[in-house]
Amino acid sequence: MPDVYNWQLGRTMAYPYEERHPKWQFAAVFNINRCIACQTCTMACKSTWTFSKGQEYMWWNNVETKPYGGYPQFWDIKILKLLAEEHRLQQVEPPHWNGGEQDERRPYGTYEGMTIFEAAVKHWGPEGPQRVLGYIPADEEWQAPNIYEDTATGSRGEPGKFHQTGEALPNHNTWFFYLQRICNHCTYPACLAACPRKAIYKRPEDGIVRIDQERCRGYKKCVEACPYKKSMFRGTTRVSEKCVACYPRIEGKDPLSDGQPMETRCMTSCVGKIRMQGLVKIAEDGSWIPDRQSPLYYLVKDAQVALPLYPQFGTGPNVYYIPPRWVPRPYLRQMFGPGVDEAIERYTHPSRELLAVLQLFRATQNIIFRYAIQEGPKVFETEVNGKPWAMYDDTEIASGRDGLVSVRTTIREPIHQRPVQHQNSI
Ligand code: SF4
Ligand code: SF4
Ligand code: SF4
Known about the structure:
Blueprint: E1 3-6, E2 11-14, E3 24-31, H1 40-49, E4 62-66, H2 75-89, E5 96-98, E6 110-112, E7 124-125, E8 128-129, E9 177-181, H3 190-194, E10 200-202, E11 209-211, H4 221-225, E12 231-234, E13 239-242, H5 247-250, H6 265-268, E14 275-281, H7 295-302, E15 307-308, E16 319-322, H8 329-336, H9 340-348, H10 352-358, E17 370-374, E18 378-384, E19 387-392, E20 395-399, E21 405-410
Parallel strand pairs: 3-16
Antiparallel strand pairs: 1-2, 3-14, 4-9, 5-6, 7-8, 10-11, 12-13, 15-16, 17-20, 18-19, 20-21
The protein binds iron/sulfur cluster (3 copies).
C-alpha cells in the first residue's frame, strides 16, 4: 500500500490509494457542550434526503447518548476492540500517543499504533486479505438511532445506579453526553478504500465523499469498512447510501442562497447553535492552507479547541468536536486524542477572540469564509478556575465567499423592545 501523510496522526500511514487532495474540504465543528439532543438536525436531514420504503433505518445524521448509546449499537466499542485485538495478534505494542514533538504537521503528537488500514494488511476475512479492518453490524444493531437515550453511567458502571454525592466540575462521576454524528467526509475514506467497484469518490472541488448509485452493486464493503458506520445499505434498492453533505447547498444552488455556498440542512436547523460548517483551503500535500480569518481554521488549527473523532482510526475525519467539560478525561482522550485537556481548558477560559468566534455559530445560514472583530467595551469580569477573566462586548462581522457581510452580531445579545402599540399582537 502507498504511504500517505495524515497530520492528525503526525505521521505517514499506509492507504490503498496514492495521496491526492481536493482544493477545498467540507469540514465542521460541533460544540458538544451546547447540544440538547432535540434531534431537529436528525429530522431535518431525514425529511430532506431519505424517504419511502427502505429508508426506515437510514439516519445519516443521528445524535446518540454516550457512553452506552450508539448507532449502530456499540459501533465505536466494537471497532476499538477489533483494533486492540489485531495489535495483540500481530504482537504490536497496544495503540498509544507519543505526545513528544508537536508542531503544525503533528499538532497532537504522534500516534504509535496501527490504523484500520495498517491493521488490515495481515488480516484475512472470509474472502481473503482485507483492505480495511471492520465489521458488518447485525440488523438489530440498526434499530434505534438513540438507544439508551439520557442513560447516565452508574456508580459501579451499571446504568441507573448513580453516585449519591452530587456533581461538580471538572469531572462528574455520574455522566452522559450527546454525540452528534454525520459522515466525516474523511480525508482518507475507509468506505472508498474498501469499495471493489470503485463506486465511491471524493469530489476534487470540496472533498465531499459520495457513492455513485449506478456503479454500486451492494457488496456492503463500505458498510463494513467505515469505522463510523456512516455508509448504510438500503434493502429495497440493494445499494448503499450515505450523507451527501447537502451538496447543492455547498454549491450555492439552494434557491435561498443567492448563489453563495450555504451550510447544510442539519447545520442550519440546529436549535442548540452547536454547529458551524464550512470549507477549508487544502494544499497539495493535504495540509490546511493557513487562513487565519476563517472560523474553522481558527477553531481547529489556531485555538485548537476542536478535535477529530477517533483520529486513531486513520481516516482523517473532517468533523471536529469541542469536547464536553464534565466527562472523565480518559474517556475523552480515547475518543478525541491527546489534545482534550488543553481544548477543555481553552473552552472553559475562552480568549477574547474565541468567545467572539463562538457567537458566530448559527448566526447565519451562509458559509462563513472570513470573520472580523470590532472591539467593544469591557462589560463583565470574574474569576474562572482561579484565573481572572473579562468579557468585552465585541462585534463579530462575518462574510461569505463573495466578500459581502452576511451577519453582524455582538457578544451581548441586544434587547429589542416591542413598541407599545404592538405589545399584544394577537
Ligand atoms: S465517515 Fe465513513 S462513510 Fe463517511 S467518508 Fe469517512 S469512511 Fe466514508
Ligand atoms: S450534511 Fe446534509 S445529508 Fe449530511 S447528515 Fe447533514 S443534512 Fe444529512
Ligand atoms: S439540532 Fe443541534 S442541539 Fe438539537 S440535537 Fe441536533 S446538534 Fe443537538
